[in-house]
UniProtKB/TrEMBL annotation:
It is found in: Cell membrane. Pfam families: UPF0060. Belongs to the UPF0060 family. It comes from the Bacteria. This is Small multidrug resistance family-3 protein. It comes from Kosakonia oryziphila.
Length: 108
């Protein structure tokens, strides 16, 4: 389960980077050259999703919980926004959902 969780975090980070870089270009006037690493990050994101040993719907459902946590960590570290109690609570609930789904992969 640890390997799957770490893989989900890597996947989420690639997705966030792949979306953040074009946002920088469009909203903050950064160089359009950022689209190259953005495309590479999104390609890596798609490839990482294929490494999971479960049906795609379950993978996406479980991945959603980790994505929530990764996005909140990004919000804190990159954007410098202080997380609230409700942010942390939501992250815990999302991770619990992910762990429940992953625990049931071999039982379904």
């Amino acid at each position: 389960m640890l390997k799957t969780t770490l893989l989900f975090f890597a996947t989420a980070l690639c997705e966030i980077v792949g979306c953040f870089l074009p946002w920088l270009w469009l909203k903050r006037g950064a160089t359009p050259l950022l689209l190259v690493p953005a495309a590479l990050a999104l390609a890596l994101f798609v490839w990482l999703l294929t490494l999971h040993p479960a049906a795609s719907g379950r993978v996406y459902a479980a991945y959603g919980g980790v994505y929530v946590c990764t996005a909140l960590i990004w919000l804190r570290v990159v954007d410098g926004v202080k997380l609230s109690f409700y942010d942390w609570l939501g992250a815990v609930v999302a991770m619990c959902g992910m762990l429940i789904i992953v625990a049931g992969w071999g039982r379904a």
